[in-house]
Write a structure and sequence with these properties.
Elements: H1 2-24, E1 28-33, H2 41-56, E2 61-66, H3 74-83, E3 88-92, H4 115-123, H5 125-136, E4 141-147, E5 152-156, E6 170-173, H6 177-186, E7 189-192, H7 198-203, E8 209-212, H8 214-219, E9 229-236, E10 240-245, H9 246-249, H10 254-288, E11 292-294, H11 298-304, H12 306-313, H13 317-325
Helix pairs in contact: 2-10, 6-12
This protein binds beta-D-galactopyranuronic acid.
């Protein structure tokens, strides 16, 4: 009896202790994910956002960054965000398209004239509207801010200068049918594949090339897997997105939501400065490593991809006009 009673007392104490712990522990740690390694512009900008959250809330809200895809590839991370296992993720908008089709307007080939045009769009009303669309979709995540993913160009084992040169080449694209169609229209065979599989697929000859911006081409080491040529097609200018799990967002007070939004927007602007520097640095490193930057007539690739814009852009006619009218 006594033994039982003391057991009960101990159990009550544990419950009380843990209840007390939960009640007093208002501290929140946001687990953040990025596929890129430590030091990459997006990673640095999100870490600095975490420091601001920490300072503004006196340690009540902190952020722990998990870079280098340690929490998984982007598709898997999105799923974790949706269930609230990961609170913040910086991901390519490419993988959001299949979940929130409205964002595919930004995922279309040559929808932006250049980087400056893309920035003007994401900084303006259209950028704000698309973040809202993500937040109000059934995707169970909140669009916090945009980041710069530069322009994507083709890196291949054989030199490519025209769409005809891509004939018979298998080129890795991100997981979104729109991108496979884009590569097929550009003259090659688009193969959908996760970022983490590209290196060995290049090495084993499963693919003949892929496409990305210079910082990703360098930090992924793909340039060491036989792709000597970097054709400057700039066919996709895809903004990247910073999202928060809706599960997490719904638990925040209005003041905390406003704070998260504010520091996210600051991260958008900070990343951009770091980004420009990293494009210059990594392009120089790629050139020093013997990668040939091949100039191409972009118009040929623009024209080749017209059917993709016609197919996917049909439901975005007004939006595409507003994008093209943005100065
Ligand atoms: C990078 C982008 C990543 C990832 C990767 C890919 O440019 O920053 O988010 O999407 O491309 O090709 O999968």
């Amino acid at each position: 009896m006594t033994f039982r009673r003391s057991l009960l007392a101990a159990a009550v104490a544990v419950v009380a202790l843990s209840a007390g712990f939960t009640a007093s522990a208002q501290n929140v740690v946001f687990k953040a994910s990025d596929t890129h390694p430590a030091g990459y512009p997006n990673v640095v900008a999100v870490e600095s956002m975490g420091k601001k959250l920490d300072a503004a809330t006196k340690g009540r809200i902190t952020l722990k960054m998990f870079p280098g895809a340690v929490l998984g590839e982007e598709k898997a991370v999105v799923e974790q965000v949706q269930i609230g296992a990961v609170q913040i993720a910086r991901i390519s908008l490419g993988v959001i398209g299949p979940i929130v089709p409205e964002v595919d307007v930004f995922n279309m080939p040559f929808v932006f004239r250049d980087i400056a045009h893309m920035r003007a769009v994401i900084d303006g009303p259209i950028g704000a509207e698309l973040l809202e669309k993500v937040s109000n979709s059934s995707g169970r995540m909140i669009g916090l801010a945009w980041m710069d993913g530069g322009a994507r160009s083709l890196y291949t084992k054989k030199k490519v200068q025209t769409p005809a040169d891509l004939k018979g080449m298998k080129v890795r694209m991100m997981g979104n049918p729109l991108f496979v169609d884009t590569m097929n229209a550009m003259g090659g065979n688009g193969i959908s594949m996760g970022y983490g599989e590209v290196f060995s697929a290049l090495q084993t000859g499963v693919i003949d090339g892929a496409e990305n911006n210079a910082p990703s081409l360098f930090t992924s080491n793909h340039y060491t897997a036989g792709t000597k040529y970097y054709a400057q097609t700039n066919h996709l200018i895809i903004p990247e997105i910073l999202v928060m799990s809706k599960v997490t967002w719904d638990k925040l007070s209005d003041a905390d939501k406003a704070l998260v939004k504010k520091v996210s927007h600051e991260a958008q602007l900070e990343q951009r400065v770091l980004w420009d520097k990293s494009v210059a640095d990594y392009s120089a490193k790629l050139k020093a490593a013997g990668i040939e930057f091949v100039p191409v007539d972009q118009k040929l690739f623009y024209e080749a991809t017209a059917p993709v814009r016609a197919k996917y852009g049909a439901k975005f006619t007004d939006l595409m006009k507003r994008i093209s009218d943005t100065k």
